[in-house]
Design brief:
There is one protein chain. This protein is an all-alpha fold. The protein has two domains: 6-183, no CATH class; 190-275 and 357-475, no CATH class. It contains 19 helices and no strands. The protein has helices at 6-22, 27-43, 50-69, 72-109, 127-142, 152-160, 173-181, 188-221, 228-259, 277-281, 286-297, 308-325, 329-349, 352-355, 363-385, 389-401, 409-412, 414-428, 445-465. Helix 3 crosses helix 4 (72-109) and helix 13 packs antiparallel against helix 15.
Length: 476
Amino acid sequence: MLFNSTEFLIFLALVFSIYWTVLKNKPRGKTWLLLLSSCVFYMFFIPKYILILFITILIDYFAGIKIAATEGKARKIWLIVSIVSTCLVLFVFKYYNFFIDNTNAIAQLIGWNYSMEAMDIILPIGLSFHTFQSLSYVIEVYWKKQEPEKDFVTYSLYVMYFPQLVAGPIERAANVLYQFHAKPAFNFGLAAEGMRQILWGFFKKIVIADTCAAYANAAFDSYESLSTVSLLLGAIAFAFQIYGDFSGYSDIALGTSKLFGIQLMRNFNLPYFALNIPDFWRRWHISLSTWFRDYVYIPLGGSRVSGWKFYRNVFIIFLLSGFWHGANWTFIIWGLIHAVVYCFYFAIWGNSKQAEPSSRQPAWKSISGAAVTFSVVVFAWIFFRAKDVQEAFGYLQAMASHSFLGSDTSTFLPILLLLIPFQILEWINRQSANGVFLSGFTINRTVRLAIEMIMALLIIDCYYTLDHEQFIYFQF
């Protein structure tokens, strides 16, 4: 069930109505409703895969209890059991075929008469997201930062909560478990904010991302014959496609959750206004960035280590991040590009405090820093978008060798008429609470309603005139 579908709107309206009317004074009933609704939501994709999710939930639930109840080696054994079993599912469905293909390629290269058969399986939707969410829970319990959840229904809801089940944000147990245990009363202000955030999310997804998708697809499908400017605009279109797509999903998820009185963490904070690559990663996919920071980077020593170990840690984080996104060398190269630029930046500017962008620096430095950062990000997105390494380098070669302008250029220029006003809206909205459009602004109610009506009409128009694109991050 896609967020950008009529089925989801009907589903959400039904769950919302039952939650606040039939179960108004029944907190346990609300928990069960959200869990059952999450099961229905997940089963809209591949129903039988819910059994896999149930098994991993069961293992991690008992592992969390056992970790808290034991000490010494037994405690560590339960942690290992949980991590290995959870990661094994991820490996089999997401990375096994990649491992087999590369093993076969190496065997052929060195002349071994050896090959292994790949498996014909479909990746469970959102597998990487709920895997990392489960891992964070057992690790926090092991570190004694989180009490184990004794209620199986509530723990299952923590892993399966439908607004963020298939594409995040990757939530921490400390942020949501207590909210599931609370007895929420309907908050009209929070619900209204949630509706505005859902509207803004749909605008990003349907008006911005799906429009940009048409230009990006045209550029990558025909890169051999397009001019340099057209290819550049196609790459920029993909940059905004993936941003509008993923941040739009996050806004819909956060807004939907607010309708049930539950607040999730912010996942995006104007990443294309970042002044440098470290700043970009403080703003892009925040829940994943902080996950790697807390559970990999800091345990490795973080920035406290000196010399080559710091750069080693950075490369490990970004290579893992690239591999997390997909079993393809294009994602690994994408992560490697960010690692190289990140390390280069710190080699010049020193530690993280010196690297923090200053709000008091001259405007021309902020603008130039943001422009350079955006250029690097767009360059890296080419590898992320390409179906393989050969296509990525072919695209870059075409950008460098084709004529600067061509008859095709006029076909791609209109995308700027959409993206420039969108960036202006983003900048105006930079102070809004949690990224909700115009939240916190003192604005006439009639004017606000008029703006929201225009956005809704644009969404409806684009919904019926553009191809429906599945959320990009559903594949992860």
